[in-house]
Design brief:
Distance between the termini: 27 Å
Oligomer: single chain
Structural class: mainly beta
Strand content: 35-45%
Number of strands: 18
Order of helices and strands: EEEEEEEEEEEEEEEEEE
Number of helices: 0
């Protein structure tokens, strides 16, 4: 109903994030849900404002030295082509997965649990279904242009891949009327030169 704002802050602990709720007419923000050690991608209120859906990737546990202080690991096992990125550093072992925070109970539930990057998602207008974009190829780094669309019950369960043209997809959005999904992308995943993105609608 637009009565509160959700945001992330590390005000309780600079090494951990927590969701906070702030009344739009003023007042003090209150923390809700567990502490998060890692990176939060997108997050959305459910239409009834009972839940916050978000994508999350856990940070690696720090290596501690003889005195208990964090220090760089003595070695790293590299098993991904994109193991390090400018601006974000070393890629953690975890991948982005979808989660649901129950604002009444303050508990979080993991809705997907796999090795693929499930960060770009949208919530259906009625709040019953999540749609998300993800590359589920054997090598998702080398074949990153092959992104598929998935449908998942908002309470969790088995995800279903929906038929869409092959190619990169991003900026997924759900139509408020519940009729369409929209994203940017193109249908030429094997073109090394790339293509200009187009707006796609899925009915």
């Amino acid at each position: 109903d637009g009565s509160q704002i959700a945001f992330l802050s590390n005000r309780q602990d600079e090494k951990e994030l927590r969701f906070h709720l702030l009344p739009v007419d003023g007042g003090e923000a209150r923390p809700v849900g567990p502490s998060l050690k890692g990176e939060v991608g997108r997050f959305l209120f459910s239409p009834d404002e009972r839940y916050i859906y978000y994508s999350f990737r856990a940070a690696d546990e720090p290596v501690k030295g003889p005195k208990g202080e964090p220090e760089p690991p003595p070695f790293r096992e590299i098993d991904r082509l994109l193991y390090r990125l400018d601006g974000s550093g070393w890629r953690p072992a975890d991948s982005f997965n979808l989660c649901r925070l129950d604002l009444g109970r303050g508990t979080a539930k993991k809705l997907t649990d796999d090795r693929f990057e499930n960060a770009d998602f949208a919530l259906a207008a009625d709040g019953a279904v999540l749609f998300y974009l993800s590359c589920h190829r054997e090598d998702p780094d080398r074949d990153a242009e092959y992104v598929d669309l998935f449908r998942l019950p908002a309470s969790g369960g088995r995800a279903k891949m929906l038929p869409t043209p092959a190619g990169p997809k991003w900026a997924l959005s759900a139509d408020p009327t519940g009729r369409f999904l929209a994203w940017f992308g193109h249908g030429h995943p094997d073109d090394p030169a790339g293509r200009s993105p187009r707006l796609w609608l899925y009915e």
